């Protein structure tokens, strides 16, 4: 996948609004592989909805979203399964970790599907993000900021052409946010991947090719 193309996309819930002031909604635009994008937004303007549309688990929108000029609404379940394992990674705003599993088990669950990272590489990510002592701790006992870092490690445990991160540093201190940004850059550059980051204020500090106001 080299291009995500949005054609006049608009959440159906916004359809009755007379005016929409947005760089994204009701525009024709392209997200290109290898480039980095920041989507700044106020709460309630649809940033999580946009991630859900691109990831394919919601379709309550007008307009068309294409992957390399294929309308994603035409994709079959098996095609989505392949895309989500091999081409498109998402860090959910609500994280969607399994609370009864440990931090390491949550990550390994994803990695067993993709076999993308070695055990050594996974442990190195935990160490870099200051979570080495949380490996065998159940996720439900971790702070939200710690859970954000676990979910971030999990979303790196797959190949991808694009990675979406929905408010990834909302509960992180500056030091951990900086480490996350560096790890993300290294992984994206290694895979020549596109990066889309959403923010309602606090965001990953990196050089973005384009900044949109949602």
What does this structure look like?
This protein has 214 residues and is of the alpha/beta class. The chain has one domain: Rossmann fold. 33% of the residues lie in helices and 22% in strands. The chain has six helices and nine strands. It has a five-stranded parallel beta sheet with strand order 6-7-8-3-9, with helices on both faces. The chain has a four-stranded antiparallel beta sheet with strand order 2-1-4-5, covered by helices on one side. Helix 6 links the parallel strand 7 (162-166) and strand 8. The radius of gyration is 17 Å and the shape is globular. It starts with a strand and ends with a strand. The relative contact order is 0.21.
Distance between the termini: 24 Å
Parts with pLDDT < 50 across at least 5 consecutive residues: none
Architecture in CATH? 3-Layer(aba) Sandwich
CATH superfamily, please?
P-loop containing nucleotide triphosphate hydrolases
What is the domain tally? 1
Q: Residue share in helices?
A: 25-40%
Main pleated-sheet profile:
5 strands, parallel
Question: What class do helices, strands and sheet pairing give?
Answer: alpha/beta
Q: How large is the share of residues in beta strands?
A: 15-25%
For the record, the CATH class is: Alpha Beta
The tally of helices reads 6
Global morphology: globular
- The spatial strand order of the largest sheet comes to 6-7-8-3-9
Order of helices and strands: EEEHEEHEHHHEHEE
């Amino acid at each position: 996948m080299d291009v995500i193309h949005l054609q006049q996309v608009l959440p159906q819930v916004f359809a009755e609004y007379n005016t929409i002031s947005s760089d994204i909604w009701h525009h024709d635009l392209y997200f290109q592989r290898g480039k980095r994008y920041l989507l700044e937004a106020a709460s309630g303007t649809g940033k999580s909805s946009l991630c859900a549309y691109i990831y394919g688990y919601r379709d309550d929108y007008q307009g068309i979203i294409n992957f390399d000029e294929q309308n994603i609404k035409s994709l079959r379940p098996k095609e989505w399964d392949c895309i989500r394992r091999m081409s498109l990674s998402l860090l959910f705003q609500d994280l969607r970790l399994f609370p009864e599993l440990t931090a390491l088990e949550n990550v390994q669950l994803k990695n067993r599907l993709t076999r993308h990272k070695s055990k050594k590489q996974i442990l190195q990510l935990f160490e870099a993000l200051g979570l080495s002592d949380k490996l065998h701790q159940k996720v439900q006992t971790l702070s939200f900021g710690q859970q954000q870092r676990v979910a971030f490690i999990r979303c790196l445990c797959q190949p991808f052409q694009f990675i979406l991160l929905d408010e990834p540093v909302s509960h992180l201190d500056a030091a951990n946010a900086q480490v996350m940004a560096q790890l993300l850059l290294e992984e994206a550059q290694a895979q020549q991947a596109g990066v889309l980051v959403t923010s309602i204020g606090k965001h990953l500090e990196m050089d973005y090719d384009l900044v949109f106001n949602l």
